[in-house]
Structure formats: structure tokens, C-alpha cells
Amino acid sequence: QLQLVASGGGLVQPGGSLRLSCVASGSTLNYYAIGWFRQAPGKEREEVSCISSNGGSTHYADSVKGRFTISRDNAKNTVYLHMSTLKPEDTAVYYCAKSRASRCGYSYADWGQGTQVTVSS
Fold first, then answer.
1. Residue 64, CA distances (Å) to 29, 42, 49 in order
2. Which of 38, 78, 87, 101 sits a CA distance of 20 to 30 A from 68?
3. Which pLDDT belongs to residue 1?
4. In 3-state terms, what secondary structure has residue 89?
5. What are 97's strand-pairing partners?
6. What is the predicted pLDDT for the residue at 62?
């Protein structure tokens, strides 16, 4: 059974950087697109980024475009989200999820637990 574990969150000052990791066990991620989502208190969950199964296609929410970079290492069954120039409004719990398809734009079947990112001085 697939298990997704997100890690790498923490407290960072505005303008700082963090790299989140999403590691899968129990099944391979290699054939599926992977998405990163976030949810702040009192707000709806937002899809932040998605990467296709072979890494050839990536998508970003306008709110993070130019600041966040998604990547994957299929040999390690891991997807990363590198976040830079962080802002207080990036504060949220971040989740990774496995798509039902190899491309972005489809629904997600499996979700990991979240990792908290707090951007504050």
C-alpha cells in the first residue's frame, strides 16, 4: 500500500528558502504525476504545483510562480518542492499527492500527511 511522507517544513524568515520532500513507500511514483498542495488556517486547499511522471512538464499556481520549483527523482521515489523568496502568506500545511494519471490536470488518488511551513520574522 502506498504511503506518502512529506517533510522539510519548518520556521523560516521572509525571503528565506526551504526544500520539501515527498517520499513514497510501498509503491512506485514513477508512472504518476505528483502534486503539492497547501492549506492555511481558514482557507481552502490550494494546488501549488504539479509535475508529470517523467518530470517533463511542470505547473505552478500564479501565487508561487518564479519562486517555487518542483522536481523529482524517480530512482529515489521522491518529489521535491524547492521554495525560495518565501512570504508570510506562504505559511500553511503542505501536502503531496499522487495523481491518477501520468500528466497533471487529473484528480489525485493518494495523499500524504502534511508538513508545516511557517514564514515569520
1. 24, 19, 8
2. 101
3. 84
4. helix
5. 35, 111
6. 97
